[in-house]
Amino acid sequence: MTEFTSDVDSHPDSPGQDSDDAVGYYVPGEPIADTKAPGGPISERWNTRKFEARLVNPANRRKLSVIMVGTGLAGASAAATLGEAGYVVKSFCYQDSPRRAHSIAAQGGINAAKNYKEDGDSVHRLFYDTVKGGDYRSRESNVYRLAEVSTNIIDQCVAQGVPFAREYGGLLDNRSFGGVQVSRTFYARGQTGQQLLIGAYQALERQVNAGTVTTYTRHEMLELIVVDGKARGIIARDMVTGEIETHLADVVVLASGGYGNVFYLSTNAMGCNVTATWRAHRKGAYMANPCYTQIHPTCIPVSGTHQSKLTLMSESLRNDGRIWVPKNKADCTKDPRDIPEEDRDYYLERIYPSFGNLVPRDIASRQAKNMCDEGRGVGPEVEGVRRGVYLDFADAIGRLGRDAVEDKYGNLFDMYARITGEDPYQVPMRIYPAVHYVMGGLWVDYDLQSTIPGLFVTGEANFSDHGANRLGASALMQGLADGYFVLPHTIRDYLADGPFEAVDPSHPAVVEARRSVEDRIEHFMTVQGTRSVDSYHRELGNIMWEYCGMERTEDGLKKAIDLIRGLRDDFWRNVKVLGSAATLNQSLEKAGRVADFFELGELMCIDALNRRESCGGHFRGESQTEDGEALRHDDQFAYVAAWEFAMDEGLGAQKPVLHKEDLTYTAIEMKQRSYK
Amino acid sequence: MTATAGTESDTTSDGMKLTLKIWRQANPETPGAMHTFHLEGVSPDMSFLEMLDVLNEQLNAEGEEPIAFDSDCREGICGMCGLMINGQAHGPEVTTTCQLHMRTFSDGDEITIEPWRADAFPVLKDLCVDRSSFDRIIQQGGYVSVNTGSAPEAHSIQVPKDAADRAFDVATCIGCGACVAACPNGSASLFMGAKITHLGELPQGQAERDARVVNMVGQHDHEGFGGCTNIGECTAACPKEIPLDVISQLNKDLRTAMRHGH
Ligand SMILES: Cc1cc2nc3c(=O)[nH]c(=O)nc-3n(C[C@H](O)[C@H](O)[C@H](O)COP(=O)(O)OP(=O)(O)OC[C@H]3O[C@@H](n4cnc5c(N)ncnc54)[C@H](O)[C@@H]3O)c2cc1C
Ligand code: SF4
Ligand code: FES
């Protein structure tokens, strides 16, 4: 898809923007629009689209094939549903079973506008909360639809036997989550993602038994096949035998999850990657708002350079815990219990007297980083800095008693104790923010179709529903909404053009895709440099965290881009991958993923550089109010930044093309948030 | 667990010294063998798998191929990890391998690390095994047959809280396979019993109850898992504490199904 490409190089005219920090790093392109969302009243749009989307005759469905990459909530639910409808589905995942997709780790719950509590909830309110939570950077039609189908999700999951929490009367229980005022979150103790995923996985395995779905586990998608402008298949590697396989189909769906691991340390699973979506991006699918990442304030801090991942603890802890650091740097190594009250800085209570410890996620995160950057962090020193702040339950235990605290938070305290070896009933917990979710992803229209016809993208892998910030318990909702209720309707409009002409495996586009995968693997196996893949990944993560994390500045981002480019060149020349490509080889798998993370990281920084505003979870140093709070600029940045991949050969680096999709709101009014 | 403050972990830079005896096997066809490795500077705050990461970095630097082992979430929920540690599935504590921490061990320890051993879990490489037999058991009926879109309103199905809680408790099985690895017979009865009980406790699971148990057990036997002789090693090794009585439930359901003519 290069039809929008413009070769204009200088762009003093970025329309509407006062300034453009990213001049020279990108090329401005034509605006882009979502042409699939119907007009009319917002509550009618989805019905209209469902009606207008063409049907596929059941007899023809067996002649139509779908490749589904990913078996998380978004992928397993869609594969099962399309299998039930009678299409021929191939389902891929890199784990040894579809049931292990990262969705399994979600703890808190799933939102749905059931209004079982009669507390004033409604589809409109869930829609409103989600758009507002996303800081007015999401698309209203998509979000409304999400809220609308949310209720069907609960019905479907209950029918599958998902054991949601129930009240004594036998009806479903709800809780309030993520700072909203209604109780609309359905949950299964602290394992909601697990239970929902097992429901979807079982539906998927039922279709395997029925012969409509074939699963390819321990298979990694390494390239997208585009024939005559349409997505027609993938190149995948059998991760056990090393065989490179060509899989062809009529349509490809990416449900491959988020790319938070570009930061190396995150709460994502070890294998979460951007490869599937990045390969599609390189083939013409636009990447939207890549710099939008969510950072969660209450994670267990890094304990040493050996740290491989971070663990999230429920935010509910901030309801009763008090956050502090020592006033004096000299106290940072002391036993916190020996630091007297007057030497403690309860900084959130001090800076935000009305919200205190309950300020929004991004503020809590940013201030924790500020304290540690000042040298007042606590816990082990890792690479010269102590990155942790205290979350102290001593007052809560004094006020409520140990039993009450144990009742509320017992499982979290146990988890903390298991990981850190410390008893949080006696010494304050230590917490630190960590990357947890990405709102950015491949650009899709209302049909969830990317800019490559025949390539659809669902779940965390797309960008569409959460704007600049995601509300708690809404990612599970989106994954299942996309997979069970949205994609199956919209994809049929595309498939209605079929049956399609079969693609010959010797087609030049197929051969080229295969060769590029083989060449890349061959390269990794022959470099035989001196540094491990992990060491590069960790260094990239540090750059991203430092300069493209919670707080960003023009200078920092420019520096990050230089650093990433230098490191990436070194990686290609000096990485060390041992063993053979013809067996299970985890270093080789990681090398491919890290190679793509380098390119993504560069694009994230360019996107962040362009967006000179603080919005959602992102604080741009240059865009703040007089008292240091986030300042959004709706007049300049109320758009989706959709990036088209392009290389500047002279520079030997990316010079992407920016297509802006203006965001207009008809059913909701834009407001600045305020928390003072 | 101790009550020490986090600041003490500052002093771990010298760390523990360990002798590791690890199974290495190039591929499913080639026979494997135990190899000995020495690792220094192990921090008690490392997870068991982070300790192996450090070993792998060391091997890579020395030009020896890193050891393959599975993990993904490293939070004890995906079920991807699983090692026999000193002969115990997931090691000495009731948790997953990824949630085991090195503070459980002492300086100077010798630790033996092997893959799951079971006929139905062939070794793929080093410490990785093939557990796809579990998926095939589920394919035979570990679900409720309800197509997307055909579900009734959620509140039309009431489930007593006790039943819902019990269903949840056994539905927390992560499919790791420790029960099979721990069982002298290599039986997957605990895994299967957990699914039979999860769906059997709920009204939604009743319609297919007989066929489910018969077909799943048939597949289980076909895959080469052994029979259950009530030894109880499975439940002792299970990181999610799935209770042994799910196997009684499984057997009871199987007898009922047979009586019904299945
Ligand atoms: C610790 C944690 C807690 C969370 N808690 C909540 C919560 O309480 N509520 C909430 O709403 N959200 C929560 N989230 C967010 C939510 O879990 C995720 O956003 C969501 O589950 C993503 O689902 P998905 O189906 O899009 O992708 P995933 O579940 O990530 O699935 C991705 C799939 O793609 C496959 N895949 C990826 N790359 C490739 C490739 N190259 N080749 C082949 N296959 C590939 C994987 O094997 C996997 O099957 C949480 C996230 C984390 C990290
Ligand atoms: S029953 Fe326990 S040990 Fe067996 S697979 Fe499930 S969680 Fe693992
Ligand atoms: S890696 Fe997921 S349970 Fe251990």
UniProtKB/TrEMBL annotation, chain A:
Membrane topology (UniProt): Peripheral membrane protein
Whether Electron transport counts among this entry's keywords is yes
MF (Gene Ontology): electron transfer activity; flavin adenine dinucleotide binding; steroid dehydrogenase activity, acting on the CH-CH group of donors; succinate dehydrogenase (quinone) activity
Q: List keywords of the entry alphabetically.
A: Cell membrane, Electron transport, FAD, Flavoprotein, Membrane, Oxidoreductase, Transport
Active site: which residues? 361 (proton acceptor)
In this chain the FAD-dependent oxidoreductase 2 FAD-binding domain maps to: 66-476
According to its UniProt record, the EC number is: 1.3.5.1
Q: What is its main location?
A: membrane
Annotated stretches, region: Disordered: 1-44
Class in the EC hierarchy, top level: oxidoreductase
Cofactor(s) this protein requires: FAD
Q: Which Pfam families match?
A: FAD_binding_2, Succ_DH_flav_C
GO biological processes: anaerobic respiration
* One cellular component (GO) term of this entry: plasma membrane
Which cell locations does it reside in?
Cell membrane
Positions of the Fumarate reductase/succinate dehydrogenase flavoprotein-like C-terminal domain: 537-675
The cross-references to PANTHER family, in alphabetical order and at most eight, read: SUCCINATE DEHYDROGENASE 2 FLAVOPROTEIN SUBUNIT, SUCCINATE DEHYDROGENASE FLAVOPROTEIN SUBUNIT
Which protein family is named in the record? Belongs to the FAD-dependent oxidoreductase 2 family. FRD/SDH subfamily.
Q: What is this protein called?
A: succinate dehydrogenase
Q: Can you name the source organism?
A: Nocardioides donggukensis
